[in-house]
Amino acid sequence: MVKLNKIYTRTGDDGTTGLVDGSRIAKAAPLMAAIGDVDEANSGVGLAAAALAADSAEAAMLARIQNELFDLGADLATPADAEHGFGPHDMALRIVPGQIARLEAEIDAMNAALAPLRSFILPGGTEAAARLHIARAVTRRAERAAVAAAATRDLNPLALAYLNRLSDHLFVMTRHINAAAGGDILWKPGATR
Length: 193
Description:
This protein is mainly alpha-helical. 53% of the residues lie in helices and 3% in strands. Helix 1 packs antiparallel against helix 4.
């Protein structure tokens, strides 16, 4: 369990930050951009959840996702272990296949009742859906940042897959939520020319 008695440590005043194994990297490193974008995506998911009924199925999904995004940040911040690689073990939180499979099952369940897309949709609709669109866009940025970081160091491939699936999940959830409020807002190419 995490215990923080003191919020500031001054160890980052030199422009570095610590990884889970105690090593230090520059705060401007691609890995730190990815971790920061995951944190921002998590904040966006929390903002979206605040616009939903607390006892809704969607709020429960987002609560699981928020917890997993913390796990994902820890995964990214934990270099591969010499003995376990990126496999889960007692000393490291790792994204596991079951988390991705659950996202896929939730996507399929929400998508089953939706009409097929015949146009791109505009990010908006209900307040919750609009907030989810922001979280989705930030999740895509986090994915791009993680891919860039993976070009400079080994990362858990399941962490990258999770981010990819999560953005799909958030997109389908926006459609699912908007379906109950009149449907998607469709893009009309060239409509204002």
